[in-house]
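Here is the promised in-class demo. Please do not try to memorize the tokens; focus on the logic of going from shape to residues.
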């Protein structure tokens, strides 16, 4: 039986993916967030990097790649080492740059524990020694770009529900609108460069949250998602890719 190993926050999308895969395979597919349930091949990792009982893996996305996407500090260091414009996290409070973001943790999802800080007074009220901060980058647009086999398959623009002075585009504050690649002529070549990074090249299916810095005129990579939110149409794209590329 084909199995999908996911996490609690990605469970709804994993079930949507399962439904599409069942149409291709014409057989039942099991979804779980418990790694001990994965005791045979084949299986697919959907946002869960936990160790399983079997030694070898055919989960498409490696545990290392999933950990890269979920650990913001590790992600930041890989991007910085490869000269990719992305968040840089600090604990040293000697040279603060306002506005800035405080992050209570670097392993949370959905913008939880993130605070926009405008001045030193706000910073002193909120800051704890175990937090991180990063300069706030005002992005004119933010996109979610779905990648299958190192190729762009879908682009969604995050549209704010209401104007904000310092936008934080999470699922509760914005909606997604489908866009064509032609609207973003520089994006394709940028993604081609990004996926050549060794650690990124391990990923087979995922999405990238990426924004445009209109002042510096370049893309800003916010994060990778290996357990992306999927609607039925995007799940169908994922299912087709898996069906055509996974040996069972």
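The designed amino acids, position by position:
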């Amino acid at each position: 039986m084909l199995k999908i190993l996911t996490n609690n926050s990605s469970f709804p999308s994993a079930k949507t993916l399962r439904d599409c895969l069942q149409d291709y395979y014409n057989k039942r597919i099991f979804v779980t967030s418990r790694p001990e349930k994965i005791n045979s091949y084949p299986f697919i990792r959907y946002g869960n990097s936990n160790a399983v009982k079997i030694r070898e893996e055919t989960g498409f996305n490696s545990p290392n790649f999933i950990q890269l996407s979920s650990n913001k500090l590790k992600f930041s260091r890989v991007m910085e080492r490869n000269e990719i414009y992305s968040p840089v996290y600090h604990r040293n409070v000697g040279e603060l740059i306002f506005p800035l973001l405080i992050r209570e943790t670097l392993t949370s999802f959905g913008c939880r524990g993130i605070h926009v800080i405008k001045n030193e007074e706000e910073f002193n009220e909120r800051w704890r020694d175990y937090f991180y901060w990063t300069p706030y980058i005002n992005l004119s647009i933010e996109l979610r770009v779905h990648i299958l086999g190192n190729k762009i398959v879908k682009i969604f623009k995050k549209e704010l529900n209401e104007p904000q002075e310092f936008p934080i585009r999470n699922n509760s504050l914005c909606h997604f609108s489908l866009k064509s690649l032609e609207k973003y002529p520089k994006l394709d070549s940028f993604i081609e460069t990004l996926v050549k990074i060794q650690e990124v090249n391990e990923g087979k299916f995922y999405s990238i949250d990426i924004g445009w810095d209109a002042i510096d005129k370049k893309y800003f990579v916010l994060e990778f998602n290996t357990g992306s939110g999927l609607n039925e149409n995007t799940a169908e794209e994922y299912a087709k890719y898996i069906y055509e590329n996974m040996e069972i």
